TrEMBL record:
Gene3D superfamilies, A to Z: Cytochrome c-like domain (1.10.760.10), Cytochrome C3 (3.90.10.10)
The UniProt record lists the keyword Transmembrane: yes
Record-linked SUPFAM superfamilies: Cytochrome c, Multiheme cytochromes
A Pfam family annotated for this UniProt entry: Cytochrom_C
Alphabetic keyword roster: Heme, Iron, Membrane, Metal-binding, Transmembrane, Transmembrane helix
Keyword Iron set for record: yes
One Gene Ontology molecular-function label: metal ion binding
Sequence intervals crossing the membrane: 178-201, 241-258
Descriptive protein name: Molybdopterin oxidoreductase subunit, predicted
Ranges of residues in domain Cytochrome c: 57-149
């Protein structure tokens, strides 16, 4: 009985200590993962829409149109496919610019000297017509170009607004490898301490028995010719060793199982091979094409949408990267032509187009509702907040875990910017109506907007 009591006291206390320490380390790892999210939220949400307006037109409205329709071919301070736009309002009249932007070829056909000169100067590259734009839309674009062009140049800081270009929470959604390795080290050290203490207790117990005159059997010492099987058999009779071995294996398997279950369904780092090697590093990074030029649904609907190949053809009808392939068209661009059944020599389309089978990367569960427009248009969050430094990725991968915990951490730390935000202005109007006791219908809350049902 005394031996059992000694085993109990020497085993249970370390077991309780190790268990408490294990859960404490895991809990600390999960709780502290919110800190990076708090640090990244400031950089990720620092882009508010321009509130001031130019002398004519709404610059903030023009910014959205410019980023969606113009950035693939134009920049303010440098030539891309088309000329730099800074100071364009001083070089041409507003009436002329409206005609040119809506349909440049129609203006050239009239023999306008400025239109013909620009067309010839830029190798007769046809500017995409925008008949869907109203005169007011064009005026808003010009107001934005003037306002941005008048701003002093600022040092380049990357598209994401942070030093690493991410601006995103870096929560891994589970226990890190460092924490798991630390836990294993703690368990091993604790086991060694327990073994040493057991040896000390055993020695003291023998001395006590010898003092009382009780005969004590000496421990069997391994014989020189003893086989491995015999050694294991002898060790298996040591109940303390067996107990601690089972305890250690249970802790390790439990920690590993917890980690595996915690990361079930998390595809962070997933990077499938796509049918076309489209480089965001080139388009979004080097050429600085705004994300919403291709992903047009991000600012107005639930889905960001996959761009059609016709969007690619806005540039690749002319840009063919022949200088990199000894005069031949880039094989990746040829994949676009093949899918569209397009003949680059005759510049005509055939009757057998086929869709590109893109591999989806970011995929939320069906029960999770995420609306891009709420985050992009209302909250003003940049794409890098969730998708990481997209402008540095030759091939896109899933940057964030996109777990519920990751989203909740962001919602806990993100500051809501209601000033000058039309979405919150509408809510304030509704609150005022409720205070006055007036009728508030779903229509007042935006219930008849198309995107409420058709997203």
């Amino acid at each position: 009985m005394r031996s059992i009591s000694l085993i109990f006291r020497s085993v249970v206390k370390p077991f309780i200590f190790v268990s408490a320490l294990s859960f404490g380390v895991q809990g600390y790892a999960q709780d502290t993962s919110a800190a990076p999210a708090a640090a990244g939220s400031v950089a990720g949400s620092a882009t508010a829409a321009v509130a001031s307006t130019a002398s004519k037109g709404d610059a903030s409205a023009g910014a959205a149109i410019f980023k969606q329709k113009c950035t693939a071919c134009h920049a303010l301070n440098r030539t891309v496919v088309g000329p730099a736009l800074k100071g364009i309002s001083e070089r041409q009249s507003e009436e002329w610019l409206i005609k040119w932007i809506k349909n440049s070829q129609a203006l050239i056909a009239t023999g306008d000297p400025d239109a013909v000169k620009i067309f010839n100067e830029y190798n007769k590259v046809v500017m995409t017509p925008f008949p869907e734009l109203t005169d007011g839309d064009v005026v808003n674009i010009l107001a934005y170009v003037k306002e941005e062009g008048d701003k002093p140049a600022t040092p380049a800081a990357g598209a994401a607004g942070t030093a690493d270009g991410t601006g995103a929470a870096t929560d891994t959604g589970g226990v890190s490898n460092f924490m798991l390795g630390g836990l294993i080290v703690v368990v091993i050290i604790t086991l060694l301490v327990v073994l040493v203490l057991n040896r000390v207790i055993s020695t003291l117990h023998k001395l006590l028995l010898q003092k009382q005159g009780v005969p004590v059997e000496d421990e069997k010492v391994a014989e020189p010719g003893e086989k491995v099987y015999d050694k294991l058999k002898r060790l298996s009779k040591n109940k303390k060793l067996v107990f601690f071995t089972i305890l250690l294996v249970s802790i390790l398997l439990g920690s590993w199982s917890w980690r595996m279950m915690w990361n079930t369904g998390v595809h962070e780092g997933y990077q499938p091979e796509q049918p076309i090697k489209y480089s965001h590093q080139l388009h979004a990074g080097t050429l600085k094409i705004n994300c919403q030029y291709c992903h047009t649904g991000a600012y107005k609907s639930k889905n960001a949408s996959i761009p059609s190949l016709n969007v690619c053809m806005n540039c690749h009808n002319y840009v063919q990267a022949t200088e990199k392939y000894n005069g031949e068209i880039s094989p990746e661009i040829m994949k676009i032509y093949k899918a569209l059944d397009y003949d680059p020599d005759t510049k005509k389309y055939g009757n057998d187009p086929k869709p590109i089978q893109w591999v989806r990367i970011h995929n939320l569960p069906d029960f999770a509702y995420f609306n891009h427009s709420q985050h992009v248009s209302v909250a003003g969050i940049e794409c890098q907040k969730c998708h990481g430094p997209i402008q540095t990725m030759p091939e896109v991968y899933q940057y964030a875990p996109l777990t519920m915990k990751w989203c909740i951490n962001c919602h806990r730390t993100m500051e809501v910017n209601a000033k000058g935000n039309g979405y919150y202005d509408k809510l304030e109007e509704v609150h005022d109506l409720l205070k006055q006791g007036k009728k508030v219908t779903p229509a007042v809350l935006g219930g008849i907007e198309c995107g409420k049902c058709h997203y």
